[in-house]
Amino acid sequence: MHISHPARRTSDLALFKAMLAQLIVSGLATGSLYALLALGLVIVYKTSNVLNFAQGEMAMVSTFVAFTFLETLQMPYLWAFLLAIVASFLFGAAIEVALLRPATNPTPLGLIIVTLGVQQVLYGAAGWIWGYDTKTFPSPLSDTKIYRLGRVVLSEVNLWILTASIILMVALLLFFRYTRVGVAMRAISQNPTTARLMGTRTPWVLSLTWAIASVLGAVAGMLIAPITFLDPNMMLNPLLKAFAAATLGGMNSLAGAVVGGGSLGILENLVGGYLTPELKDSVAFFVIILVLCLRPSGLMGRHYRRRV
Amino acid sequence: MLRISNIETSYGPIRAINGVSLEVPEGRIVTLLGGNGAGKSTILKTISGLLEDQPDKGTIEFMGTRLNGLDPEQIVRLGITHVQEGRTIFEELTVEENLLMGAYVRRDVHGVQRDRARVLGHFPVLGQRLNQRAGTLSGGEQQMLVIGRGLMAHPRLMLLDEPSLGLAPAMVKEIFQIIKTINEEGTTILLVEQNARMALQVAHYGYLLEAGRIVLSDDARALSENEDVRDAYLGIAVEGSPKGFKRYKKKKRWR
Ligand SMILES: Nc1ncnc2c1ncn2[C@@H]1O[C@H](COP(=O)(O)OP(=O)(O)OP(=O)(O)O)[C@@H](O)[C@H]1O
Ligand SMILES: [Mg+2]
């Protein structure tokens, strides 16, 4: 008869549980950053029908702007953060007005190419202005100071990442549910012609979605920069993850972007923790491929058929 | 109130409207009748500004303002609401949100509340479904929502495109009754309909459109007694008419 060691078994199990909880919580923190970027992708996709490949680089530029406020202008952190948000809002709107709006009768593919162009230009411009060397993003938040929640530990950075993301997501939810412009945005994404007949100024609302997407990216960028450091490449990887998250959640679902971001962050961490860290970054690819095969509209997306 | 003079509208190279003039006096219901593809919807779209750079020729004037070249979002602010054909609801929005979108251009909160109550009075079923996703409404309910949403703008002139389409007979009667009430409450209406019989019952005046031209216009009562109209649109055969042959020829031309 097999004799087991009850004490050791429970402690093994407890350890396993603690590790699982830990992986999930820190995965959730990373995932919430993916979710912010994915939300930016989704709101632009819903209103303009464009996959915005420049989302990452727009976020990167905003982060560099915050860096300039902090380092060059020596602003207090809160001020730099808020000013960078304002700047990114204007920046997002400006990109839509200057580069996407002029396209007359654009095809979705044409607009995607434009966003690829924007990405390249921003990348080059950032390298030219701020250089390609990696910089440290000053942060008042500590990576080593930790908070304990039972057996789970959470670094101060991750705690703020979670808090800020949740605040932003709730704000966005309230905006789309309860404000006139927010509801109009959803209406435009479903039926732009009818929305115009109701009096919505569609071009203006489109710029607003780009502005909001840009802010989401900026916040994600400023939260992630203390961890990943700062250089023009910083958003390549997160943006890919955001695409995976948006695909997983459903390209046209805001809730899907949040769920997709969170689950991808957790999934990655579980693979990294239990399987091998080497595979962590590939999870996003597998997710994209699996979703496209099994459920192309994503977890929460709807394929809505348009009546002609 | 609305005066259209000699407009020509085309979709690219295809000319859909060929010199149409019509007039909608304040406080009236004017109906625009015609077969499929006659150009009825095109005229409404030209008025509400949906067709960019149209009309090619002619003028549209609303209470002294020229509408040519204005965008739909400007035209709706002048007090013209276009209720499109088909169930053009916002499917992912709730019924309540759809109604609020109808009042998008308005700032008078109390007025909006009053109109909301009025709409729910006309269509009580919408009141029971306020928080339901509009896409889950039945076809008829969606049609009611589209009309209700149009009313939420409190328009001076309402362009109604086939409001009775796809409704059960009892509901058709009700819709026309509601249209009449809306009109009596002060909204001028330009009504496009396939259901000529009902349309001529509520309208004061009517125009007959064929292949992009007005072929006949008269008081609604006179139109509903007009042989050609009876024959082609009301489905009433006039047996033994001495003009039978002539009518037959006309009919052929019309179709
Ligand atoms: N977007 C478009 N592009 C090209 N041609 C169009 C377009 N919309 C309408 N047409 C054409 O213009 C003509 C008039 O169409 P319209 O929709 O105004 O007809 P209608 O009188 O409303 O018909 P129905 O009763 O079937 O709704 C038709 O011949 C139609 O094929
Ligand atoms: Mg039509």
Q: If you had to describe this structure to a student in words, what would you say it looks like?
A:
The complex is a heterodimer of chains A (308) and B (255). Chain A has 308 residues and is mostly helical. Chain A has a domain of 207 residues. Chain A is 72% helix and 3% strand. Chain A has a two-stranded antiparallel sheet with strand order 1-2. In chain A, helix 1 packs across helix 5, helix 2 packs antiparallel against helix 3 and helix 3 packs across helix 8. The C terminus of chain A is likely disordered. Chain B is of the alpha/beta class. Chain B has 11 helices and 10 strands. In chain B, strands 6-7-8-3-9-10 form a 6-stranded mixed sheet, sandwiched between helices. Chain B has a 4-stranded antiparallel sheet with strand order 2-1-4-5, covered by helices on one side. The radius of gyration of chain B is 19 Å and the shape is globular. Classes of the chains: A mainly alpha (308), B alpha/beta (255). Chains A and B meet through helix 6 and helix 7 of A and helix 3 of B.
